[in-house]
Amino acid sequence: MTQLATVDWIIVLGFLVLVTIVGFALSRAASGGLNDYFLGGNKIPWWVLGISTSTSNFDMSGTMIIVAAVFGLGYKGFLVELRGGVGLSLAFLMVFLAKWLRRSRVMTSAEWMKLRFGTDRQGRAAHLLSAIANIVLSLGMIIYFCTGAGKFLTHFLPFSELTCTTVMVTIGLLYTLMSGLYGVVFTDVVQMILLSFTALYITVVAFGMAPDVTLPAHFLELNLENPVGPGALRLASQAGWQPILEMFGLVICIYLLRTTLEGSGGVGGYTDQRFFAARSEREASLLTLEAIVLSLLRWTMVAGLVVMGLYMVQHGAAGAEAIADDPESVLPVVLSRTLPAGVKGVVLAGLIAAAMSTFDSTLNAGASYIVKDVYESYIKPSATGEDLMRVSRWATIGLCLAGVLLSAVIPNINSIWGLITTALGPALFVPLFLRWYWPRFNGYGFALGTGGGMLAALVVDLGLKMPLHTGFPTIVAISLAICVGATLATPPVEDRVLVRFYTQVAPWGFWRKVMDKAMKTGQLSLQDAGAQLQEKVNDAMALFFAVPFQLALLLAGMAFVFHDWLKLGFFGAVVGMCGVGLYFFWYKGLKSPEVCQAEDEAHRRRYGEGFEVEESDGVGAALDVTA
Predict the structure, then answer these.
(1) Selection from 359, 348, 302 nearest residue 327 by Cα
(2) Which helix (H) or strand (E) holds 48?
(3) Alpha carbon distance 122, 116 (integer Å)
(4) Tens-digit pLDDT profile for residues 113-148
(5) Mean pLDDT of the chain, nearest integer
(6) Residue 558 in contact with residue 301, Cβ under 8 Å?
(7) 543 or 472: which leads in pLDDT
(8) Percent of the chain predicted with pLDDT > 90
(9) CA dihedral sign, ordered 493, 494, 497, 499
(10) Has residue 624 got a pLDDT over 60?
């Protein structure tokens, strides 16, 4: 443990007091009802939501894992983090998924099921299982946060991991309870200011150190061959790393498949909440681009921490032996041993901010599923607004306590991160993917596929302990078989529900018969159908540019810190070319604010704020559009 100077204590405590004050100041804005508490009343500017999205993904625990991966493997550590640390799903969200989610006009990912599958028995089954799955994932993310936060802070504070975690959690819980999403996103802005300083400071210092550091052999290799060298050996001794290193190429391909499924189908949780909260579909798309660009700060910081860690090892600095024993400790050891007083306090506050941002976002979103999708829907439908707000706060407290207590039995960060990203995640990605693209997919298929897939994931990962290259395909295959089998064995979704969903959201997929029915009943004009087709063509082209744009941007940032000028030039050129493509195929196609406002008003006139699809919509059941 490194003792903090008085100035560092003042900075850290000042930050904690500041975010608490911000939460209190915004408490009145969040008191108007559930929409205000969980979505900010759809009044929060896109640039604030974009900062919040980026900050929520800039978590402390994940950064510790990423630094460990890059420290041991070089650029190949970046490839490992395609499993979730890169956040590549943002490229898919930016191009098409963000606007689909905003067009849904719901409060939670579980409530979305009513729009897609209806409100009959199968719709309610999908709704309930989606709520349960999102609550479980929220709990897993809170455990993940608590495990990493405690491990990090013990390097700076004279307390146990549980005590450190409890203090952070208490403050995050306090302002989340008071102000809901308002408090979450506006404290995220404060936190991003600290994070930006932290990232830029580390980047600049490491850039100056880089000439005095000898990068290990194979460090600059960016290929799918099995990693070699002392760094790989260090990682191999840690839990969960050996299978990744032994079948590296296959594992990376699996990670890419996982990311594609996630990006194409959605991720749920607090990520979707940002898009439901956006003021329009245009702003939902713009906030995602902002989140992608801001994520560059995280990756230059990661590269900087790696350079500083290598400098410590190669120059025999105090603490180097701790890095060799546990690569996950590179982040806290480097910061505790190399930063001067004052700067250390700001950097520590910035990383505490990163951790709290992930925590408060997850906590607020998780509570929304408990209140909106379980309590109000199935326990007390007659609950008043005052009742729901009270239950919201108790749900927030309960979810928080459960996460803190369970984090005490988790051995390391990589274990819980692996369970979330490559076991529970794949089990959910299949039904989440099918819901957008296959009209015949019904609520029973979603519910059974979600429940069965999660059970299979737990058995495969925790029970059978299957390695990733066999466990992942097994989980995906089981989930897919259950989804398809249950769907074909049960009645399809009603035509009127499908037509309502398609005309409102206009997703990709096999929706031609549904589109024809919408045109036949007058709910979709020929002109609108043509505009939808053009939009889909543009989106497909934009996706071709968006994925390499994000990857090249982050790799260029790392190359800059490593003084790898050849890769910097190459990836910089890719960013430039893809940026031009995105301008023409994505940005120019975004709807204007006036069009978005007019569409929202037309939707409210036609449907109000509910999600029931009435027969008066004019859609009969004479034509089967679900084949």
Answers:
(1) 302
(2) helix 46-57
(3) 11
(4) 999 999 999 999 999 988 888 888 787 777 777 776
(5) 85
(6) no
(7) 543
(8) 42
(9) positive
(10) no
Task: Kindly tell me the number of DSSP H helices and DSSP E strands found in the chain.
Answer: 28, 0
491 φ, ψ (degrees, to nearest 5): -65, 150
Place of tokens 């802005």: 189
| SS3 (DSSP) at 451 | helix
Per-residue CA distances from 291 to 50, 117, 195, 228, 275 (Å): 5, 31, 14, 34, 12
pTM of the model: 0.85
| DSSP tag of 613 | -
Q: How far apart are alpha carbons 606 and 626 in whole angstroms?
A: 25
Contacts of 277 (CB under 8 A, 6+ apart): 38, 39, 40, 42, 44, 49, 181
Q: What is the pLDDT of residues 66-94, one digit of tens each?
A: 999 999 999 999 999 998 888 899 999 99
Q: How many residues does the chain have?
A: 627
Strands (DSSP E) found in 280-388: none
591-598 long-range CB contacts below 8 Å, 24 or more apart?
591/280, 591/281, 591/282, 592/282, 593/280, 593/282, 596/280, 596/281, 596/282, 596/283, 597/280
User: What SS3 class is residue 26?
Assistant: coil
Q: Do residues 578 and 549 make contact, with C-beta atoms less than 8 angstroms apart?
A: yes
Taking the C-alpha atoms of residue 462 and residue 240, their distance in angstroms, rounded to an integer, is 12
Q: DSSP for 132-157?
A: HHHHHHHHHHHHHHHHHHHHHHTTTS
Cα→Cα distances 42→39, 109, 281, 376, Å: 6, 16, 11, 21
* Sequence-ordered list of residues with C-beta below 8 angstroms from that of 409, at least 6 positions apart, any chain: none
Please give the DSSP secondary-structure letter assigned to residue 216.
Answer: P
Residue 316 is predicted with a pLDDT of 80
Nearest-angstrom CA–CA distance, 173 and 69: 31
Residue by residue, what is the 3-state secondary structure of 371-428? HHHHHHHHHCCCCCHHHHHHHHHHHHHHHHHHHHHHHCCCCCHHHHHHHHHHHHHHHH
Residue 564's pLDDT band (cuts 50, 70, 90) = very high
- Per-position b or e across 177-205, b if 16+ CB within 10 A of its CB: bbbbbbbbbbbbebbbebbbbbbebbbeb
Helix, coil or strand: residue 190: helix
Local structure of residue 608 (DSSP, 8 states): T
Whose tokens are 């689909």? That residue is 100
For the record, the structure tokens of 418 come out as: 């692996």
d(CA 349, CA 30): 26
Domain ranges (residues) in the chain: 6-493+525-610
Integer Cα distance of 55 and 38 in angstroms = 18
CATH class of the domain comprising 6-493+525-610: mainly alpha
Contact 150, 165 (CB under 8 A): yes
Hey, what are 6's tokens?
């008085």
